[in-house]
Amino acid sequence: MTTGPSVSGPDKGAQLYEGKAKKVYATSDPALVIVSYKDDATAFNGQKTGQILGKGEINNRVSNHLMRLLESHGVPTHLVRELDGRDTLVKRVEIVPLEVIIRNVAAGSFSQRLGVPEGTPLACTVLEYSYKDDALGDPLVNDLHILALRWATREELDEIASLTFRINDILRAYLDAAGILLIDFKLEFGRLPDGTIVLADEISPDTCRFWDKATGKKLDKDRFRRDLGGVEDAYVEIRRRLLGADA
Ligand code: UDP
Fold it and tell me: What is the Cα–Cα distance from 49 to 69, expressed in whole angstroms?
């Protein structure tokens, strides 16, 4: 059970799922579930594990803040209502089994795979898909893999791509004003029962690369992945820049 005065949502029912960074609980309404963000952190497909103190609450609040921003620009999301520190009520969706990745600047696996130094500007924005399968290491796939294996239809994939580019434009402009460069990020989409595609999962320092615009300092999970130190401080800094000092 959740506690605290801000809780007005449905009771947490049975745990349906536990992922690497979140748990999902049933509610009395079959169309809604509660997502609960954990402090647990993993990297390199689960080979590195640890905890980032306070991450669950920060990711919950940051992700909801950014989803509300996107909703205000007409992007449909799974968000219903933040319940408390680490819990949020969301629409139950069937997740499309893809990691949808946007790259504005070379970094991470893109840099490694293609031998391009991190921080290299790209002549255009790159959209990539990975098949969500830990056992296979989330392999990179293209549109035809997705259609051939029926992970999404052509119409769904067109919708996902168009939403993703719009989301990139909205987030980049918003983050730029907060002094943050959006280097790359990963999105996941789901289907509502009527087939509508909505943004699901999270948008947080776990799933985005955020670099300080002035100094280039990494303000995201790379501090954990690469043992750069100051991990908790980076998450706190992102919360402060996006939600203010009192958040
Ligand atoms: N990402 C993620 N989950 C994953 C893989 C990547 O959220 O399982 C995010 C990651 O934080 C980064 C972007 O997607 O913002 C691109 O990640 P990349 O492919 O470079 O992989 P990484 O270097 O993180 O292994």
Answer: 31
Taking phi first (over 0 means left), then psi (-120 to 50 degrees means alpha), and beta for anything else, what does residue 242 get? alpha
Pocket test residue of 101, 103, 208, 220 for ligand 1, highest count of atoms within 8 A of CB: 101
The residue ranges of the chain whose pLDDT is under 70 are 1-9, 246
Sign of torsion over alpha carbons 52, 139, 23, 127 = positive
The whole-number pLDDT of residue 9 equals 62
The pLDDT score that the predictor gives to residue 153 is 98
Q: Give the integer Cα–Cα distance in Å for 235 and 188.
A: 21
Q: Match 């939403």 to its residue by tokens.
A: 163
Give the whole-angstrom CA distance, residue 236 versus residue 95. Answer: 29
Burial (CB < 10 A; 0-12, 13-18, 19+), residue 157, is: buried
* Residue 164 near residue 130 (C-beta atoms within 8 A): no
Residue with tokens 């504005």: 104
What's residue 247's pLDDT? 72
Point out the ligand 1 atom lying closest to the alpha carbon of residue 184. Answer: 15
In contact, 184 and 208? CB cutoff 8 Å: yes
201 lines ligand 1 (CB under 6 A): no
CB atoms within 10 A of CB 5: 6
Nearest-atom number in ligand 1 for the CA of 183 is 15
In angstroms, the CA 14 to CA 111 distance is: 42
pLDDT for the residue 8: 54
The pTM for the full model equals: 0.95
